[in-house]
Amino acid sequence: MSLNSDIPPLSPAQDGEPAEYKERTGFSKFATDYVASPIAVFALVLCIIIVLAAVFAPFVTPQDPYDLMNLDLMDSRLEPGEIGMTGMTHWLGTDGQGRDLFSAIIYGLRISLGVGVVAGIIALTVGTTVGLTAAFFGGRVDTLIMRLVEFQLSFPAILIALIMLAVLGQGIDKIIIALVAVQWAYFARTIRSAALAERRREYIDAVHCLGLSNRRIMFGHLMPNCIAPLIVVATVQVANAIALEATLSFLGLGMPVTQPSLGLLIANGFDYVLSGRYWISTYPGVALLITIVSINLVGDRIRDVLNPRLET
């Protein structure tokens, strides 16, 4: 009989790490660490509610604010809680065109979120490709690309967007193009920094020895290990895109008057603030603030979870 036959095997909790820690890997560990912050969980719930309300806007709003045939100027500038000519109760009041403000805010969120997400995805694709190319090839290619990135980042984002929209004109596609032109450099700089560190690791040398193509190495092996910082930057840039789109619409360079986003709704009520009709600008402004803050809080928590060293 072996001398060690009576010694029971070590349990997962006895060999150096708690069992529950070993079982939490990948998404499970990420989710557990994320929900440790009640504020981040509340922000995530707010984001989900906002997204669902925007996606299902026709089903949760009593009026289509973009259908001019359903608008009645006799219902313009009604106070919150007043009943309109059609018998509808406008819980948040109406704007100067007779739009139900609650409906206009939900539809405005639809535009703002759509523009922010689409612009973010396109900018992520362009910036990732450019940043990976710079980090992978290095030398003159890296120098040329990064000088271009630094040149763009030296200008204020609002200035670049204003110039582009002044040239391209109004429209949701024009806004997306302007936002992509503003944001791609942030993604390129972020993934280049991460890729430079990953490029020196042994697995990159190993796949080089296997004779794989540069494109397969870049997007199949290098990029997956640089995803974490990109997720954080993408979350923040979506919030920035929503804020920038609202700013452009407030200045009259965003969406047309017939399809107002949150920024244009705020601009439409700006002239009525001093006359006491505060709700026309205030409620869209509060909705915009809640949206941006909640997305930023989610992004900050994701950053802390993916890089615990940043936590204080």
The CATH class assignment of the domain at 93-307 is: Mainly Alpha
Total strand segments:
2
Order of strands, widest sheet = 1-2
Largest sheet: 2 strands, antiparallel
Percent of sequence in beta strands: under 5%
The backbone outline, from C-alpha atoms, is elongated
Give average pLDDT, whole number.
84
CATH fold assignment of the domain at 93-307 = MetI-like fold
Q: Please provide the ordered H/E string of secondary-structure elements.
A: HHHHEEHHHHHHHHH
What is the CA–CA distance across the termini? 54 Å
Helix content: 55-70%
CATH superfamily label of the domain at 93-307: MetI-like
> In CATH terms, what is the architecture of the domain at 93-307?
Orthogonal Bundle
Radius of gyration: 25 Å
Instruction: Please give the count of helices.
Output: 13
SSE map:
Blueprint: H1 19-23, H2 27-34, H3 38-55, H4 57-60, E1 82-83, E2 89-90, H5 101-137, H6 139-153, H7 157-168, H8 172-199, H9 202-209, H10 214-222, H11 227-250, H12 262-270, H13 279-306
Antiparallel strand pairs: 1-2
